[in-house]
Amino acid sequence: MTGLEIAATPRSAMLAPAAMQHIAVVDDEADIRDTVGEYLELKGYRVSRCDGGATLRALLEADTVDLVLLDVAMPEEDGLSIARYLGANTDVAFVMVTAAGEVVDRIVGLELGADDYLAKPVDLRELLARIKTVLRRGARRAAKGGSEAVETPQRVMFGDCTLDTNAHRLIGPDGADIPITAMEFDLLRAFAEHPNRVLSRDQLLDMAHNRGWEPFDRSIDIRIARLRRKIEPDPAKPQVIKTVRGAGYMFALPG
Predict the structure, then answer these.
(1) In Å, what is the CA distance from 127 to each residue of 45, 185, 255?
(2) How far apart are CA 186 and CA 181, in angstroms?
(3) What are residue 97's DSSP bridge partners?
(4) Which of 38, 35, 59 is nearest to 47 (CA)?
(5) What is the chain written as a DSSP string?
(6) Lowest mean pLDDT: which of 20-34, 39-53, 174-188?
(7) 123 forms bridges with which residues in the sheet?
(8) Is the entire prediction scored with pTM above 0.70?
(9) CA distance 114 to 90
(10) What are the structural domains, with CATH classification, of the chain?
(11) Sheet holding 161-164, edge to edge
């Protein structure tokens, strides 16, 4: 994870509470792991340092991790391979760090379920802001899955699938769970809250991201394509999430 920019941190800002949320920093360079890890620890997070995919997998088996910060460019098992594992086998949020200009890596990372990405050089203050946003979104979703009332119906049926908004589950026609990332769930919930209505990309970003940074302009398209592969009988001819040319997308529900 080369290309790190370290911003001076006022002493008074070093004790911001984070409720000891657990972050795994995955990078093959020890100095980067230590620099990022020490910064996040000063901000109140519990940090585990991993030098690659094997170390991360062992950590995930032994402990609960709230977020993984994952470098793409690593010599043994690259970050995209690790991201593929995280997206397919866990519900842990992860943020990817890519080289500036590596658009393909960003697109692939989003397709694999990354919750966010950062391009190098990375400013630690921006990194912290992105991490807080991803973790806040997860906390809001967990709260809504408990006692807090939500506007969305608890179970929304579409096609052969059912979205259980309280349990944060996407259920297939056979009753089995379909693996879904945090961002995919937020998108589906946003659609379910506004059925049969055209939503622009900006509206979807506001509803699903709820963050103030300028997003990668293809992130919604990539995630919707990924969702279609999970919920549409024929993703090439979508019947649930329909494209409205020049306007955005519509979540088509009967009656």
Answers:
(1) 13, 23, 44
(2) 9
(3) 71, 118
(4) 38
(5) ---EEPPP--GGGTT---TT-EEEEE-S-HHHHHHHHHHHHHTT-EEEEESSHHHHHHHHHHS--SEEEEES--SSS-HHHHHHHHHHH---EEEEEE-TT-HHHHHHHHHTT-SEEEESSEEHHHHHHHHHHHHHHHHHHHHHTTTS--SS-SEEEETTEEEETTTTEEE-TTSPBPP--HHHHHHHHHHHHSTTSEE-HHHHHHHHT---S---TTHHHHHHHHHHHHH-SSTTS-SSEEEETTTEEEE----
(6) 174-188
(7) 5
(8) no
(9) 12
(10) 4-144 (3.40.50.2300), 155-251 (1.10.10.10)
(11) 155-158, 161-164, 169-171
What angle in degrees, to the nearest 10, is found between the helix axes of 182-193 and 201-208? 120
Supply the mean pLDDT for the chain. Answer: 81
Looking at the predicted structure, is the pLDDT value of residue 178 above 70? Answer: yes
The Cα 215–Cα 137 span in angstroms is 16
How many angstroms separate the CA atoms of 252 and 3, rounded? 44
Amino acid symbol at 222: I
